[in-house]
Amino acid sequence: MWHSFRPVASLLISVSIMFLGQGLLNTLLGVNLAAADLPSTISGLVMSGYFLGLVLGSILAVHVIHRVGHIRAFAALASTFSAAALAHAFFSDPIFWGLLRVIAGFCMAGLLMCTESWLNEKATRETRGTVLSMYMIATYLSQGVAQFMLELGPTAGYMLFALVSILLSAALVPVALTKVPGPALPTPRRFGLRKLIQISPTGVVGCLSSGVAMGAFYGVGPLFARNVGLDLSGTAAFMSAIILGGLILQWPLGWVSDRFDRRPVIIFVGISMSVVSAALVALGLANLDLNTLGPIAALLGLGALFGATASTLYPLSAALANDWIDPQDMVPASGGLLLAYSVGAVAGPVVASVIMDLMGPPGLFALISVVGVVVTVFTFIRLQVRESIPLEEQAPVQMMPRMTAVAYTMLPSEDEDGQLCFDFDAPPDPANETDAEQDPPDAAGQAA
């Protein structure tokens, strides 16, 4: 394990610190919006700005990285994200906060591109799977732990926003001090979303639905928790239970779907997500004191089950789509699947907040329950009209966080261990990349 960790230690430390800050900021904003007693629709629009920024950053941030190199881009984006986080403490205006969320999402997309391409550069045939697993675990654990940092200071004050800013600034230190030269950023071929829908409609619908469900949770989950009566500790525990619960079924469901038709597994996930969400709706409507032992235990248990099921929908849907895609198109196609997820994630908080205004806080999980039904019905229909791909032609499920298409270049290739081979540009000569990081921006842009 140490042999695999050492070459990527600085990057994983940066990722962990970065997600501590991002995870704390997301829930902190939700708690403050709930305290401001704004209409849920306004809060949903504010929080959806982050996912809009992710979409824009996934498209545009690559040009920043190509122009100035990875280290400078990482430093600039982390500093901008840090400043945006701190700016929340100066003006409590929904429009201003919404713009800051767009900036945060844009910066996060660029930071993840830098990190994932670096991890890909350092991963070897022997360590690739371990590195990918450590990356996924780091993101989930950091976000889960970050929830409990809410209790380190008053949520309405300056201190927690300053703490987020400190964490985001600290995240760039391991990268800034690394001696590892910046890698090449693969430039995948274009792969239209319309073509992707024609190849695997179930995969696209699954990724889109995952975006709606998880975007709604991350966007207005803290509002749900506060508005059903949870105190600050309960809110932190609820958010953490769902995030950490996301690790529970990643491997078991991936293992099952590699040995059987993936679509029944997706149907199982859709049904489970719908049933658990319906139970959360019922619990939210029961007018119980959720800060007492019995109700809070039930809420946290259901939350962990929700996280365990909902977090597997994206990787299972992506794996189903990848089964029908040529190996050389895998990376650009992954960008299309992530775009489908991101579009859903932009819409999720907005739609959920509208329903919450109509039926109260449980409207969040009412929406997610309906999403589970849609996934189940659509996948069942497709199961009747299309034969499954032969099992020997299925690629193993790669359980990974929904980050950027660059992460897909970390997946094993066929000539390495019998899995699929991806086609992307070879990295440049390390000496040239080192020079690029030290040259002025124009020269760096030509070499990066």
From TrEMBL:
Location of region: Disordered: 417-448
Pfam families, from UniProt? Answer: MFS_1
The keyword Plastid belongs to this UniProt entry's keyword annotation: no
Q: What is this protein called?
A: MFS transporter
One GO cellular component from the entry? plasma membrane
Q: Give residue ranges for domain Major facilitator superfamily (MFS) profile.
A: 199-448
Q: Which positions, given as ranges, span the membrane?
A: 7-25, 45-66, 73-91, 97-119, 131-150, 156-178, 199-220, 232-253, 265-286, 292-316, 337-356, 362-381
Q: Which domain of life is it from?
A: Bacteria
Q: Which PANTHER family match?
A: MFS TRANSPORTER, TRANSPORTER MFS SUPERFAMILY
> Do you know which InterPro entries this protein is assigned to?
MFS, MFS_dom, MFS_trans_sf, MFS_YcaD-like
Q: Span of the secretion signal?
A: none
